[in-house]
Predict the structure.
Amino acid sequence: MTGEPPAAPGNPERPQPPESSRPPDHQRASESPPALREPPAPGPSRALRTLARDREARLLLLAVTVSGLGSSALFLVAGVWVKELTGSDSLAALCAFALWLPSLAGPWLGALADRLPRRGLLVALQLATALLLTPLLVGAEGPAGVWLLLAVLVLYGASGVIEDAAQSALVATALDPRALGSFNGLRMTANEGMKLLAPLAGAGVYTLWGGPRVVLLDACTFLVAALVYARVRVRAAAPAPPRPSARAPRLLPRVPAPRRLVLAAGAAMALSGTASASGYGLMAAMGLPPAWLGVVSAAQGAGSVVSGVCAGGLLGRLGPSRTTALGLALWAAGATLHSLAHPAASLVGAVLCGLGLPLPLITAATEAQKRAPAHLLGRATATANTLMFAPTALGQGAGAALVTALDPRAQYLTTALLAATTALTLHLGRRTWRGR
């Protein structure tokens, strides 16, 4: 689920280009794509070494990793907690919905990241979220406790939306633009790695000591993240003049490239949501228990970790459109293997899906960071996140409706064909876009 521009001007780790060499913000937002072309990005190993030497990059990645550990653990435990309290699958499912719901207001919540000092906002968010969790430390009992938990999760999700916007904005102004793809890839690797490890930790803590101890773990991770964010060096900058945040959704369509890439990433997430709705049906078709879906999910997570590490290098070598098309094609190949309903093929397919799905997301996020004016980065990245991730819920709803009408193998094959078509359309559309 980062704001004041870069580290101190004299920082020898990251020399600042002369002001005259930087295009003004309004020009960055309105120039045609060829005018925005940058020098080639460094190779993957060089980019990773550069980030490893960058103090601010290390601190930001540490903050992402620490807070991601607690958030992923709580995300898993919240549904289990509600299920044990009520015995209701529908109420347990509401936990995920409560966390996701605030993302619909992303363009407006992201405006806070443009109107407040971003480092200070990130520190305050970590402390406020830790405080928000305190009512759950005494436990949630009975119907009132369930609704308290759901209310906390909604606010928790809103905090995550603002944090993502502020962090993306701070990163975009603190790091070399050519390193953004590699950093975003590593950030996704950290998130996916926590999704693999945190559920085990969360489930273990919950089994031994109950839900309040998981909440305490999460609160502690936010306190640590606050300390880390406080150490990030940034130049003081005055908040942007007030602007109507309702205009935020119009930011991305000003430049064709981010709009095309963001919509492609949203399509990928919608197709992924549609396919995942038939996951249990696929397990049944293979004659495997539902718990095997956890193994498949772990395989996909492993693929996502590798994809995040490689994303920056692929962006530098292939460019945004081809990297996005490659990700969609890999996901289509993985979904096709799933449709064979064979255990070994399904595991390989899960790895391919994990390799492919992050690429459109990382590419779109990176291009939005590069092209948005500095004073609108929070709203632009939050708008991009909404357009990319909101379709997941629509896809899951469509998939749930199709489960009764389509065999799970047919559902996976259909989404694979749609993903391949999207990849081909995006690849062929590159020439049209470049000719504008």
